[in-house]
Design goal:
The chain has 8 helices and 16 strands. By secondary structure, the chain is an alpha+beta fold. Strands 6, 7, 8, 9, 10, 11, 12, 13, 14, 15 and 16 form an 11-stranded mixed beta sheet that branches. It has a 5-stranded antiparallel beta sheet with strand order 1-2-5-3-4, with no helix packed on it. The two termini are 31 Å apart.
């Protein structure tokens, strides 16, 4: 399939003929006017993503399920610990503001990746301990009995890549502290979705929070910008792993299946604002399935602005996106739950991050 260009990037949707091929070959196949040097240079200069992930490996294997994004400008460096804001922390749990561009947790098939690749693209779960160290360092206040001018603390690393430059004895000390600060993700956000995420600090707290999610005691509200003007409604479907083209989707209601991957999914949406041909809406999850909001909106004819996957429908047609969204316009704005120990009701809100705020401002002006 030919690339679908925008002002900032072009998308390449793959098909069955690409199964088992490598990244540089499928790019060259679709961009006949590019030389092999052009293709490899774009990969080296951080201009290529596969499924939203920066890819620096020209011979990475791809399949029909993959979506390649070619950027005109080089992408920024990977997320660092100082980019992760700690909204709330106590001895039991942590709430963070997840930036777009980082995977929530390590996918099962990635757990055996070489250490070098893990350092290149750490997950949020792997980065939160380092972010906590920075948070505690910034917010530590010495007691009145302590020296009012304490010694300068050594600079902390801001990413796993920097550990290789630390002296071995200091590195061991840091790694010991990081191990004590390890967290457990109790839900996920897509790589290019920003917003509030909750982590447990012990296995027992993790189990308690997972049960709260399971029994719908956690409120999760997202803000999204979509094509068209949807009405207030509830989407209720059974999601399957492969709708026929390698991507997730809803099972047709008149089709019976014993697919073990099928999951019931419910999303409530409420319109907030019309912005020309687009709408700002609120999405409240009743269940939390992979890509649930994106699938429900796409199948209803209201594709998420900037969504590189579900702009392609199950029949192979592609809905053009002229919104110029810098990424999928989906943001986890509200998170509310009962504290698993105290029972106190906690509620957190996070405004649009800078990239989507700037884009929304331009969208309203146009």
């Amino acid at each position: 399939m030919k690339p679908h260009p925008t002002d900032s990037f072009q998308l390449i949707h793959l098909d069955e003929s690409d199964d088992g091929s490598v990244l540089e070959r499928v790019i060259k196949k679709r961009l006949a006017d590019w030389t092999w040097g052009d293709v490899r240079d774009s990969i080296r200069r951080r201009k290529v993503q596969v499924n939203g992930n920066l890819c620096l490996d020209p011979v990475r294997k791809v399949t029909r399920k993959d979506v390649i994004k070619l950027w005109k400008e080089s992408l920024p460096k990977p997320i660092e610990a100082t980019d992760i804001r700690i909204t709330y922390v106590d001895e039991f749990l942590v709430v963070v503001e997840k930036p777009a561009g980082i995977t929530s947790v390590r996918h099962f098939e990635e757990r055996n990746l070489p250490e070098k690749r893990r350092q290149l693209q750490p997950t949020l779960e792997e980065m939160v301990p380092l972010a906590l160290m920075h948070h505690f360092q910034r917010n530590f206040k010495p007691r009145e009995t302590e020296d009012p001018a304490p010694k300068r603390t050594k600079r902390l690393p801001i990413s796993p890549r920097e550990f290789k430059d630390i002296r071995s004895e200091d590195r061991q000390n840091l790694e010991h502290k990081l191990k004590r600060l390890q967290v457990i993700a109790v839900h996920r956000l897509d790589r290019d979705t920003s917003g509030l995420m909750l982590f447990a600090r012990t296995p027992s707290i993790a189990q308690s929070l997972i049960e709260a999610f399971k029994h719908h005691r956690v409120i999760r509200k997202y803000h999204a910008v979509v094509h068209g003007h949807p009405q207030q409604q509830t989407f209720d479907s059974v999601l399957i792993r492969d709708r026929g083209d390698g991507h997730r989707g809803s099972k047709p209601k008149d089709v019976e299946t014993t697919d073990p991957t099928q999951q019931h999914a419910i999303t409530h949406i409420r319109p907030i604002e019309k912005i020309g041909p687009y709408s700002l809406i609120e999405c409240q999850l009743e269940t939390g399935r992979t890509h649930q909001i994106r699938i429900h909106l796409s199948e209803a004819g209201h594709v998420l602005c900037g969504d590189p996957i579900y702009c392609k429908l199950a029949d192979g047609s592609v809905i053009p996106d002229t919104s110029a969204a810098p990424r999928q316009a989906l943001h986890s704005a509200t998170l509310a739950f009962d504290h698993p120990i105290s029972g106190e009701r906690l509620e957190f809100k996070m405004p649009w991050p800078a990239d989507l705020h700037r884009w929304l401002t331009k969208l309203r002006q146009s």
